[in-house]
Design brief:
The chain has three helices and 14 strands. The chain is an alpha+beta fold. The chain folds into two domains: 3-147, no CATH class; 158-237. Strands 3, 6, 7, 8, 9, 10, 11, 12, 13 and 14 form a ten-stranded mixed sheet that branches. Strands 2-1-4-5 form a four-stranded mixed sheet, with no helix packed on it. Strand 9 (139-149) and strand 10 form a beta hairpin. It starts with a helix and ends with a strand.
Length: 240
């Protein structure tokens, strides 16, 4: 998975992506329905048996997509059911496909690290007319096993993809925070996400101790250096 796709997936979980019915403001995308979560979970368990021990879903987002200019904005409909606010995506017949991003609870824990699945799935839009009896099926084209790593000095667990030791991850955090400070930008509280390609390059997103992203940094390991040393990492603070 490349840097841009990982950032895009993370933004789906954190940023405002759809408009709220009757309000001129951005609103977070609604969760995936229980029925669709069940269908996707069954699909993943068949493919990855070890995933069956997950305790369930931590968070999910449902979106719609299509060619630029054809799909438009998907509307979120907010209703009250008793004392509970229910948010659902209003189907848009101009959209070609439905998108589901699901963050599952850990299915394995070891030595202070918890492994969990992050799945990005799509299907032909159910808003379009289909022949009787045909139900579009989900296809999870991107399934990522990532670890939640505890680092001393921050309460947000780092979402790590790729293999990296805790001392090296701590060094990446220090190098990134130093780079952000040197760039004259607001210094975040925590390293939230880190992706390491295993060949010396990676990128990280820094943010709050509540795990809200604020700024990203690219990293490259100096050849022959110790990854557990902060000065071993060359950094580039990203501007968006």
């Amino acid at each position: 998975m490349n840097r841009s796709s990982v950032i895009g997936f993370f933004c789906i979980a954190q940023l405002y992506c759809a408009t709220t019915t009757g309000e001129d403001q951005w609103a977070e995308p609604p969760p995936v329905s229980d029925a669709d979560i069940t269908a996707i979970t069954t699909l993943l368990v068949d493919r990855y048996p070890e995933f069956a021990s997950s305790a369930g879903v931590k968070a999910s987002q449902y979106l719609q997509g299509g060619p630029d200019g054809d799909c438009g904005e998907s509307m979120v409909e907010t209703t009250m059911q008793g004392q509970e606010t229910v948010r659902e995506m209003r189907p848009n017949t101009h959209c070609e496909h439905d998108l589901a991003t699901i963050y599952f609870l850990p299915h394995k824990e070891n030595a202070g690290r918890a492994e969990a699945v992050m799945a990005h799935c799509r299907r032909p839009s159910i808003a379009r007319p289909w022949p009787d009896g045909h139900v579009p099926q989900w296809d999870c084209t991107s399934v990522t096993f990532r670890e939640y790593v505890q680092l001393e000095g921050q309460t947000c667990d780092v979402r790590l993809t790729g293999e990296m030791s805790t001392p090296a991850l701590d060094a990446v955090r220090k190098a990134g925070l130093d780079a952000i400070h040197a760039a004259g930008k607001h210094v975040p509280e925590a390293l939230v996400v880190y992706h390491f390609d295993g060949e010396g390059s990676g990128w990280g997103t820094f943010g709050t101790n509540e795990c809200h992203p604020e700024i990203s940094v690219e990293f490259s390991l100096t050849e022959g250096s110790d990854p557990a040393e902060a000065d071993a990492w060359a950094t580039v603070v990203m501007d968006y």
